[in-house]
Amino acid sequence: MWKQFISKLPRKSHKQDQDSTRNPNLGFNVVNPAVKRASAAVFPSSVIAGIEPLLAFKDVPSSERMNLFISKLSLCCVVFDFTDPARSIQEKELKRATLLELLEFVSEYTSKFSEPAILASCKMCSINLFRVFPPNRRSSNSNSGENDNDDEPTFDPAWSHLQIVYDFLLKFVTSTSLEAKVAKKYVNHSFITKIIDLFDSEDPRERDCVKAILHRIYGKFMIHRPFIRKCISNVFYRFVFEMEKHNGIAELLEIFGSVITGFALPLKEEHKIFLWSALVPLHKPKSLGVYFQQLSFCVTQFIEKDPKLASTVIKGLLKYWPITNSQKEVMFLGELEEMLETINMAEFQKVMVPLFSRLKHCINSYHFQVAERALFLWNNDQIVNLIAHNRQVILPIVFPALEVNAENHWNQAVLNLTLNVRKMLEEMDDALILDCISNYRDGVEKTNLAVEKRKLVWEHLENAASSLQPIAGNTAVLVTH
């Protein structure tokens, strides 16, 4: 289509110059009929308002520049195939030059954008960005196990055009010439939904551009804020409970991190529901490490806003606590420490029993990094203070784990940390530690007696079985232990 348009462009002739001189009424609002017919092959004549789109903005009067802007936008609604670099080279370069002109115009324009200009801008961006993606660009329909090269980003071959369109959309949305009350008709729910869908792009450059644009839309269009939050929540729900595959979770969490800082107090129930139904379950997927930093920041922001939420979040962490993934377990312990630094005493007491019951297992972990990270919690003065005020409950839970480590843990660093923590607890309450030691020894003795009793029972059963005569036709099998 662009090729047809370029081939039909009339060449400037001496005769045309004479005609223009003889007819003073000919100007920028009148275009050669041949050009108009060629233009109509690319975009509707009703949209171009009689302005030739290849003219430069500086070559038309100020009164006609908005019409020229709309004409150039319409021209850029043609999408090219970039899978073949040798195809439509001239047309692609012409479109790229036109996109750069549009970007410059939006950056410098100071008057208010007309409604047709807003419509044309949103249409151009939609056609270029919200198209049907090839398999290598989007992965939302793929299963988590189908892609072997998830760590390798995919770069879109059309980026030379897409980048300018994204830059244009960002400048357009942030421009003071764009009135939100007019633009909300076109930057609507459908437009926003498709913007959010773009977060699943495998091209990290694209995700960064979309992140900046959605953030600006959230800031400018207050009427759309609840809808944007709902859409992001839905992405998280599908990711956690259905697919466990999405490329843009980290970027969406970055946006929400800045959104949370602007929440007014007291927090709305909607925001609390988002915390425990969307953010906390995000700790479940295997790919937590990709977006853990952003998720932890969001959770911490919530707790700083309302410290009463800390116990709810900790219960959620315990619910999704990894048992066989040591890397995730170390991350959980790090996030837990951040929460315990800000938690108040009342909220801490609600969760201290299940929390330290889990930490006891972490201390005894054979993976030295997990055990080491759990013991590092005692280096935090705030956490030690919480433990000291509730030592009658906490010390009997964790002390047996320390004794087990001190007796037989294989890692020297963990052993040294264990002895240091044990010494700290002895200094905290020597009498209580003596009771814990006594109870631990009694428990070990009871365990040994139970083991010995079970051994004797098995020996009795084996002896009884060996003394029985085998039944004819059957062969007895003796199981030894």
Automatic annotation (TrEMBL):
Subcellular location field: Cytoplasm
Lineage of the organism: Eukaryota, Viridiplantae, Streptophyta, Embryophyta, Tracheophyta
GO molecular function: protein phosphatase regulator activity
Family the UniProt entry places it in: Belongs to the phosphatase 2A regulatory subunit B56 family.
SUPFAM superfamilies: ARM repeat (SSF48371)
Keywords annotated in UniProt: Cytoplasm
Entry protein name: Serine/threonine protein phosphatase 2A regulatory subunit
Listed Gene3D superfamilies: Leucine-rich Repeat Variant
GO cellular component: cytoplasm; protein phosphatase type 2A complex
Any coiled-coil regions, as ranges: none
GO terms, biological process: signal transduction
Function: The B regulatory subunit might modulate substrate selectivity and catalytic activity, and also might direct the localization of the catalytic enzyme to a particular subcellular compartment.
Pfam family, one: B56
Residue numbers spanned by region Disordered: 1-25
